[in-house]
């Protein structure tokens, strides 16, 4: 599957002819200053939770592309209030079918609030099943044993985990999460953007390699295949 990394936790997956974008936070990220968000293609946008570093550019990209935006019910209502009519709610435990395949919403252990401090609903992760492959994006989360339930329903080709530590899982927890969900290929996100989540890339790559796991840390703006 082709994956384009836009920095922080924002990435897109091209699956079954559709561009699926996650947690768009680009204009507020100095590391992604060379990305022109008005050129980003998106048929769907998934939002894992309401923190500003995951929703900042949702409105602009959605209005540019006409993408369908999905998030928990509180985020869904926020999306509608911001003038985005092409929206769809999905809460943990829920599953829906779309033209790219199916998505199941799962639990994430993390707070969630909008920029004004109002309640942003429960934080989520997403499991996507497509003809081109299946993957799990955990969203911002701590390590949780709930992850071991995911392979009971879906055989995954790869997973996307936060690895910057401090506010989410770090390297060691992400390795354990990889084992729980049964993957050997991991896209690392949520690192380096802020001073308190700066990560040692060499240590991260070696730590995963030492337990026969492949950690992908693509450059911002680059496209890779997993």
From TrEMBL:
Q: Which residues form the Metallo-beta-lactamase domain?
A: 7-190
The molecular function terms of the Gene Ontology recorded here are:
hydrolase activity
Q: Which UniProt keywords apply?
A: Hydrolase
InterPro entries linked: Metallo-B-lactamas (IPR001279), RibonucZ/Hydroxyglut_hydro (IPR036866), UPF0173_UPF0282_UlaG_hydrolase (IPR050114)
Q: Does the keyword Hydrolase apply?
A: yes
Protein's UniProt keywords contain Membrane: no
Q: What is this protein called?
A: L-ascorbate metabolism protein UlaG, beta-lactamase superfamily
Source organism of the structure = Flavobacterium pectinovorum
